[in-house]
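Reopening: structure tokens for the adenosine-5'-diphosphate complex, inputs below.
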Amino acid sequence: MSTGRVYKVSGPLVVAEGMAGSKIYDVVRVSESRLIGEIVRVDGDRAAIQVYEETAGIGVGEPVYPSYEPLSVELGPGLIGSIYDGIQRPLDALAVLSGDFIVRGVEAAALDRNRLWKFVPRRRKGEFVRGGDSLGVVQETPLVEHHVMVPPAVEGEIVDISEQEVTVDTPIAYLRTATGEQPVKMVQRWPVRQPRPVRRRLTPDSLLVTGQRVIDTFFPLAKGGTGCVPGPFGSGKTVIQHQLAKWCEADIIVFVGCGERGNEMTDVLQEFPELKDPKTGEPLMKRTVLVANTSNMPVAAREASVYTAMTIAEYYRDMGYSVALQADSTSRWAEAMREMSGRLEEMPGEEGYPAYLAARVAEFYERAGRVVCLGTHPGEGETEGSLTVIGAVSPPGGDLNDPVVQATLRAVKVFWSLEDRLAFQRHFPAISWLNSYSLYRDELSADLQKRAGEDFSGWSRKALEILRREAELIEVVRLVGQDALAPSDRLLLMTGRSLREDFLHQNAFHPEDTWTSLPKQAGMLGLILEFHRLAELALQRGATVEKISTLPCRQELGRVRYVPERDFARH
Ligand code: ADP
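Re-run output (same inputs, fresh job):
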């Protein structure tokens, strides 16, 4: 192995010479401190290296050690519940909070090498298995059964497999492959920038229920779909993220945090471990993996962190799980790209972002999807998994024309426009019903019909129409006053308000209101629209809007959201 030499240092960018044989995205170690970096450009025997640790003190002429391997993550039991940095070094959350950071260049195993796991085989000697096939399971946490899968490119006949309590490094099975006998361990590695293979991609046509009414009813996300949410400060972004993590129909949550200010990440590291899984009462961390960029790591590490998180998420998808990846904030990731691109002296595109920004963002979201997994579970046919990706963006000044937001909107199919204006009015969740959209509504219509009833899609469209008309009328009222409106318009204003206050408002901290099943969402919406229909009839027969607005049943509409699910179903 030849060793390169540092030729130039520019912040997180190190240029080394004598690097012949290394490829783009290979991992290298810089200097005797063995700082971890990834090659981002190769030019003859010179390599530009993005270094994931502070480069202060590194000088020209210091050695650079190639590994000839791409940046990879370790996959296996023990991922769940872990908190990692951008290159999958386990973070002791407490150490981070108290300000003790990882020493530069340390190599920490991502998976505990001493921990014993009980492997229970689900296949027998003599069976032929292919890449992705589940050999057996490990109870990783009370909430997650971990499938130990044959690595993607391997296949062969099982010559040995047994129940045992072993570490991730001990073979749990041996396969006879075309190239000889091969052990299979519980740990495997995968290069982060390469999507893990699947057998087939499927149309995302089933709803990812979140229990959040504005989302499920108006701007639904599909299992395996993609969504984006901007988060101006104080708009309730954290609450939304926690609600999604707790309630969305995902078995596994992977959360990647690219914070800018140190305390943003501290909040995530403090709050996430305290969340409870509402269905089981267990800590949510028992089905969660956190990837956090700490503030002592240079911005370049954010680049790696989103891929690290994505690869871990794909790994659980491959077991047949519904996985949700939440990334906050992808704008910080893009800023890291911009910084590296500047140092590489690439031709800048819009606002200094590299010209390949949109392509990178699109590639990232393309790793989402509903799929037929590469392998199968024993005795079962095809296994289906899904990976839903929800990215938060934080454009400077909330400007949605920002290049990162624009690139993201081209790549994702759902946009939840979280607006600080609404939060200011205490309208929570502060997702705008006027500016948000979901492009999954057509694909989901059959599933919605099955799960929420035949009328649901029509009601949802009708309610949105009323809300849009309400917004127009509010403008008119602002100019000429309420009295100038026809009674039918005044009635519409009343229904619009009811839709906002009795349906869209949802208190995350109220035990009943925090989550609403799809049938109850349909029921609530149906009630409001039925009231509107009857009120229109009453108007035609001479009733006044004032009279209608004081009907006692109108007050009751406002209380429906607090009716427990059980009682609601009975009525
Ligand atoms: P951000 O992360 O955008 O700064 P938070 O998520 O912390 O904002 O929300 C700020 C405050 O808004 C919360 O402390 C809470 O009082 C209120 N809030 C946000 N969403 C909801 C909700 N769905 N229900 C009730 N209150 C909410």
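The mean pLDDT is 92. DSSP finds 16 helices and 26 strands in the chain. Marking as resolved unless the reporter disagrees.
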